[in-house]
Write a structure and sequence with these properties.
By secondary structure, the chain is mostly helical. The chain contains eleven helices and three strands, in the order H-H-H-H-H-H-H-H-H-H-E-E-E-H.
């Protein structure tokens, strides 16, 4: 005979707090593990594309860390900025050496023009894109659209920071090898006119007896870490021309280019 009083006694539902507590103590762990594995996999893939295995992977991580991703207690030096400063100068030295050896008959003027072309921000961005460095950039809490714009705007800086990281991790030889792999083909391309649009506009204005163009900041928008400048350039007797850029200098160059195109300056 079955004792229904014992076997059919309703079972109380588990305490919600206990379930919540149990879930929170177990569930987050796999998520954290997956996040770490994902970040590690991204860095490993980037290392492979860079052609350099880091002894100190923290250098590579720092090279991809934007200041917006730092906690308030961290120093700005924990972002890529210091590595960018170093990498900029290492890049200049390596490319200068490459040019000196590749163009033995070139004078100082030609070498300087070629150097300016190869170390300019746009070239660094092009190298960064070719190595698919975009995915490794670490940002703070920003909107999707703002994040995409910010990643694109700092690509050149990240490229120089990576060079700095390779230099610190593997020495000059490793940094030189990285630069040579990624800049040699670009170095061999025919040199294009390297004149700054501001210089072109100024020389054109002087040729017409006009004063030096005046640049005036019209507007600054966007957050502190991702500003957008709108600048106008003025010349007597001509309509204003405006340009937009991520820095005042970039906006000034864009404004000069706009006036050059409009006035048909060659």
């Amino acid at each position: 005979m079955i004792d229904e009083s014992a076997d059919t006694k309703p079972v109380s539902p588990p305490d919600d707090a206990a379930v919540s507590s149990g879930a929170s103590s177990v569930a987050p762990a796999p998520k954290k593990k997956r996040a770490r594995t994902s970040a590690k996999a991204i860095m490993a893939a980037i290392e492979q594309r860079l052609g350099h295995k880091f002894a100190d992977v923290s250098l590579l991580t720092t090279a991809f860390t934007h200041v917006s991703a730092l906690k308030p207690s961290r120093l700005r030096g924990d972002s890529y900025q210091r590595l960018e400063f170093l990498g900029d100068h290492v890049l200049g030295l390596v490319v200068s050496d490459m040019l000196y050896r590749a163009f033995p008959k070139a004078d100082e003027g030609e070498l300087s023009k070629r150097l300016a072309e190869l170390v300019r921000r746009e070239t660094c961005i092009d190298v960064a894109k070719s190595l698919d460095l975009l995915e490794g950039i670490k940002l703070g809490a920003v909107g999707a659209g703002a994040g995409a714009r910010l990643r694109s705007s700092v690509l050149g800086d990240i490229c120089e920071a990576v060079i700095g990281a390779v230099y610190l991790d593997g020495g000059y030889a490793a940094a030189a090898a990285f630069v040579e792999r990624n800049w040699t083909e670009r170095m061999r391309k025919p040199v294009r006119p390297l004149r700054d649009p501001k210089t072109v506009l100024q020389e054109w204005a002087q040729g017409k007896g006009l004063p030096t163009p005046v640049y005036r900041e019209v507007e600054r928008t966007g957050p502190h870490h991702d500003p957008r400048f709108r600048v106008a350039v003025e010349l007597p007797g001509l309509a204003l021309a405006e340009g937009i850029g991520g820095s005042k200098r970039a906006a000034e160059k864009a404004a000069a280019s706009s006036m050059i195109d409009r006035e048909g300056v060659k």
